[in-house]
Amino acid sequence: MRLIEAIGLRLDNLIKARENFTEYELAKQAGMPRSTVWKIIHPDLTGVKTVKVDTVYQLIDTLGLKLKDFFDDPLFDDISD
């Protein structure tokens, strides 16, 4: 799995784990365009190949996580970039 795919899947899983929370809510609370979140979560549809660490940080901070907790997931064990 590519890094951008793992990041997108991890964000998607975190969003789905929260009741009544959506990509739109995350974007709104993080203060960024909804399209930015959508592009990260759906890199296969958008052709996005990278994401800035600042952007990831802003999103996961909004979710109440730290970078180490976000990346401490089996999704990141087999990155092929």
Structure description:
α2 (23-30) crosses α3 (34-41) and α2 (23-30) packs across α5. The protein has six helices and no strands. It has helices at residues 3-16, 23-30, 34-41, 43-46, 53-62, 67-71. Helix content is 60%, strand content 0%. It is mostly helical. The relative contact order is 0.22.
In short:
The chain is mainly α and 81 residues long. It is built from six helices and no strands.
The arrangement of helices and strands along the chain is: HHHHHH
Helix content: 55-70%
**Derived structural class:** mainly alpha
Mean of all residue-level pLDDT scores: 94
For the largest beta-sheet, the strand count, sense and barrel status come to: none
Percent of sequence in beta strands: under 5%
Strands, total number = 0
Number of helices: 6
Backbone CA Rg: 12 Å
Taking the alpha carbons of the first and last residues, their distance comes to: 8 Å
Oligomer: single chain
Low-confidence spans = none
- Please tell me what the overall shape is: globular
For this entry, give a set of tags.
81 residues, single chain, mainly alpha, 6 helices, 60% helix
